Amino acid sequence: MSQNPLKVLLVADDLSVIQQIRRLLAETDVAQKQSPAYEVLHSEQLATAVTYLETITFDLILLAVGLADGPARLAAIQVNGGDTPVIVVGEMADDGRWAIRQGAQDSLARPLLTPPLLERAINLALARQQVAGETVHYRQQVENMREKAAELEVRNIALDEFAHTMAHQVQGLLSQMVGYASYLEMQYGHQMDDEFATVVSRIVQSGHKMNNVISELLLLASIRGGDVILEPLNMQRVVAEAVKRLRYQIEQSQVEIRLPDSWPVALGYGPWIEEAWVNYMSNGIKYGGDRPCLELGSNLLPNGMVRFWVKDNGMGIPEIDQELLFKPHTRLGPKQVRGEGLGLSIVRRVVAKCGGKVGVESHVGYGSLFWFSLPLADQTTET
After folding, report:
1. 3-state DSSP call for residue 376?
2. Within its chain, how far is the Cα of 217 from the centroid?
3. Which of 160, 197, 216, 372 sits CB 3.0–4.6 Å from 351 for a disulfide?
4. Are 382 and 306 in contact (CB under 8 A)?
5. Mean pLDDT of the 120-126 span
């Protein structure tokens, strides 16, 4: 038991019953060989007991009742006692089940009471009450967390809507900027000196890069928005859209891109898989050697999946660095950097949501092959 005495309210309309229970509690104190375990306040009147409960906080209530008036007296005590555990002490003919059903922690037969039995009942009642209180506290915490999660969800939706609106507006303005810069380059390039031509070229290049960053941010928002319905992909069309987005990089690097004559039909979500191709091809262009050459292809796997890949002719990646490639914000060095921080991690996330995996095969000096897998939609149809 606790070193501090438990405050007990003993309620009985018979003084002899009060004296009996007090003796039992006193004998428990003697058995414990310590300072009094109980600080007992008793009342023969229910109204007086209610007054005590309004002004004093008790650890336990012992209510001695008869079967006839027991339910009413217990209800009155419970209304005023709050969460204080109650043990009902009844007569031999009373089996006490009514008290348990009504919310008492325990019910004891007074003629059978002994100090050990009473002590055990008190300890169990306090333990059950503690567990019940912890359960209520836990439920309150869960409910609070649910409310906060709902609030965050509403805020996230509002932020996503704002981000989409702003991103599309920025993309519109950006397209105008790149368009005008491209017009200057096309119409007046022959009249520009080298410095002016370099400035215009960098405006166009930065505009394309910024557009890709905005597209990735929009993609991140769509990933967080939930799952999508997977559909058979026309991979030739998806790759063509990716190539179109990389047109400026392709022209500047004079990269050679080798495409297969046909593609297996896989299940996926077109915009997400297009982003995977854009990231893989963009990296291959940037790190594919002086005259980059990219080869795109696919392989059917025995587990009902198809693996799509981009192979470059770059310097390759040390094995120790390969495990870091698909983690957010990973950079392998100041110059030879694979990805734009989030690029490859985005590929991993979107492919996983489509039911596939990502990976890389690379040896230093022999280039790299970046791949992702998707479920095969039809093993006979090709596009």
Report:
1. strand
2. 20
3. 372
4. no
5. 87
pLDDT of the residue at 29: 61
Instruction: List the chain domain ranges.
Output: 6-113, 228-382
Q: Answer for the pair 339, 283: CB distance below 8 angstroms, yes or no.
A: yes
Give the ranges where the chain is alpha helix by DSSP (H).
15-32, 46-55, 70-81, 97-101, 115-188, 194-224, 235-245, 247-253, 270-286, 319-322, 343-353
> What is the maximum span of the chain, computed from C-alpha positions, in angstroms?
117
| 269 vs 185 pLDDT, higher one | 269
As a whole number of angstroms, the distance between CA 57 and CA 39 comes to: 12
Edge to edge, the sheet with strand 38-43 lists 38-43, 6-11, 60-64, 86-90, 106-109
Under CATH, which number does the domain 6-113 receive? 3.40.50.2300
> What's the confidence (pLDDT) of residue 189?
78
pLDDT at position 13 over 60: yes
Nearest to 47 by CA among 21, 79, 85: 79
In this structure, is the dihedral angle defined by the CA atoms of residues 343, 270, 248 and 358, taken in order, positive or negative? positive
For the domain made up of 228-382, give the CATH fold. Answer: Heat Shock Protein 90 (3.30.565)
| pLDDT tens profile 345-380 | 888 888 998 999 999 998 888 889 999 999 998 754
First to last CA, the chain: 78
